[in-house]
Design goal:
about 160 residues, alpha/beta, five-stranded parallel β-sheet, binds 4'-phosphopantetheine
Length: about 160
């Protein structure tokens, strides 16, 4: 049986921490669908099209990774994709409560789908899309924290060189 997971998130924008989780997830799953949340009520820095473009650019060499978008419940999207798993990364302890709550709610909503957590790579333990955007906004150097296209687009957003 083909092992499929979805990797849901906002990806606003994709970071190297996301890529690390995804690459390691591929040792557990045959195929991973990166599932970008479209929720119009959430405010994102990047449009959906931009978030897709940045993911497509850095994932173009991965034949077993697809990119898709979803709204509504993550478990419903996972079921729609015939996925057995929801892949999430865990960084510092501060992630735990939110992730624990979400994983338990997801399990209650659909017991067939398992949430699989991978510990983040040590290099990425304190990085997140939000903190990277904040650093960039005030001119901080974010080189090596996000894939090249994301770095370029973040700089464009904040009108930095
Ligand atoms: O990158 P993020 O913002 O940490 O991703 C959060 C995401 C998309 C995984 C989460 O907000 C989510 O699953 N949203 C869809 C609604 C849902 O299913 N919520 C959890 C159970 S109520």
């Amino acid at each position: 049986m083909e092992r499929v997971a979805i990797y849901p998130g906002s990806f606003d924008p994709v970071t190297n921490g996301h890529l690390d989780i995804l690459e390691r997830g591929l040792s557990l799953f045959d195929r991973i669908i990166v599932a970008i949340l479209t929720n119009p009520k959430k405010s994102f820095l990047f449009t959906l099209e931009e978030r897709i473009e940045m993911l497509e650019d850095c994932l173009k060499d991965f034949s077993n990774v697809a990119i898709d978008t979803f709204d509504g419940l993550t478990v419903d999207f996972a079921a729609h994709c015939n996925a057995q798993g929801i892949l999430r990364g865990l960084r510092a302890l501060s992630d735990f409560e939110y992730e624990f709550q979400m994983a338990l709610m997801n399990r209650r909503l659909n017991r067939e789908i398992q949430t699989i957590f991978l510990m983040t790579g040590l290099r990425w333990i304190y990085t997140s899309s939000s903190i990277i955007k904040e650093a960039a906004q005030f001119g901080g150097n974010i080189e090596g924290m996000v894939p090249p296209l994301a770095e370029k687009k973040i700089k464009q957003k904040f009108s930095l060189k």
